[in-house]
Write a structure and sequence with these properties.
The chain contains 13 helices and 11 strands. It is an alpha/beta fold and 349 residues long. Helix 5 packs parallel to helix 6 and helix 6 packs across helix 8. The chain binds magnesium ion.
């Protein structure tokens, strides 16, 4: 088993092992004194893993309840959270009890937020089942929901007691979702780890996915930890995301997956910074080739003016400028405050 320790106010471990989901009960027992455990999952993941998880948790002596919501980002909303609270209350959960988030990013974000707020905060454990959740959203403590005015506008920082990563769950994931997660994996290589990037170029990531997950989670852990001292480090995780978010918005979160949008964003911004002489020549070609290798798009027909305009209306672009994350070369990144009125010109290449 691979163990990655995360040092937050309340330290916790991220455990990675094939088949580990079958003994999640004993692992949860090792970090919690709860009597009751509510497993939160969506309608897709329920069919695949809820039985295994429930039987393991029951076998460790917990009482269990299952909360299932209809799969899909459109259900990442407050009414689903309200239903969760009712489920917890009807199950008579106390402040000592625990929530398990079983599923992808949407499930982790919502179950985490419900755990953060029910009775002013109860324990929770993440069992991420998508690549995106395993390498990204289950680490860092961000939880939340979407509201009509925007994505993730309501939420809380809330750390899990443990994250249990079973790479075997990826075998049931359609290619589309594997590719979605691979965009974030490529991002980690771009911003922090040239060796990871080269590994992705030279090998089939899926055949060594445990190594890949371990490396990505460690990078995210380090970046998140560093941000406590050094404000801004965490922003590096937004590489490809500023333009990516604009594209997601332009397509109303339907035409492109998050990973697809990030892939296009990484290619687009690097093309611009390479042209401006900021990024080492040839970097864009390598990112483009790698995204293509993992089935990701590398450009889009949306025009630069619209992308820049949508970016300007984003919640994160305060004070008339945006912090662009740029590469010096593969593996080395930095942030560059850029005036919003210069953004369109910068990305137009
Ligand atoms: Mg992301």
């Amino acid at each position: 088993m691979r163990t990655i320790k995360v040092q937050t106010d309340r330290p916790y471990d991220i455990l990675i092992e094939r088949g580990i989901i079958n003994r999640c009960g004993e692992l949860i027992k090792s970090v919690s004194k709860a009597q009751k455990v509510c497993i939160v999952t969506d309608s897709n993941v329920e069919k695949l893993y809820s039985e295994k998880v429930i039987s393991s948790i029951k076998a460790s002596g917990f009482e269990t309840e299952l909360f299932v919501f209809e799969a899909g980002e459109e259900n990442k909303r407050l009414s689903t959270i309200a239903d969760m609270y009712s489920c917890f209350a009807d199950f008579h959960m106390s402040r000592k009890d625990l929530v398990v988030a079983l599923g992808g990013g949407v499930t982790g974000d919502m179950a985490g937020f419900a755990a953060a707020s029910y009775m002013r905060g109860i324990e929770f454990v993440q069992i991420p089942t998508s690549l995106l959740a395993q390498v990204d959203s289950s680490v860092g403590g961000k939880t939340g929901v979407d509201i009509q005015q925007g994505k993730n506008l309501v939420g809380a920082f809330w750390q899990p007691n443990m994250v249990i990563v079973d790479p075997d769950t990826l075998s049931t994931l359609p290619d589309y979702y594997i590719n979605d997660g691979m965009a974030e994996v490529i991002k980690y290589g771009c911003i922090k780890d040239e060796k990871l990037f080269e590994t992705l170029e030279n090998e089939n990531a899926l055949s060594i996915i445990e190594d890949i997950i371990e490396i990505c989670v460690s990078i995210k852990r380090d970046v998140v930890n560093a941000d406590e001292r050094e404000k801004g480090e965490r922003m590096l995780l937004n590489f490809g995301h500023t333009l990516g978010h604009s594209l997601e918005k332009i397509y109303n979160y339907k035409g492109l997956s998050h990973g697809q949008a990030v892939a296009i964003g990484m290619c687009m911004i690097t093309k611009a910074s390479e042209k401006a002489g900021i990024t080492k020549a040839g970097t864009t070609d390598r990112i483009v080739a790698l995204c293509k290798k993992y089935g990701l798009p590398v450009s889009d027909k949306a025009d630069f003016r619209e992308i820049a305009q949508v970016c300007s209306s984003d919640k994160k672009t305060a004070g008339g400028s945006v912090n662009l994350v740029l590469l010096e070369k593969i593996g080395t990144s930095f942030t560059k405050p850029t005036p919003l009125n210069g953004l369109e010109k910068f990305i137009t290449v």
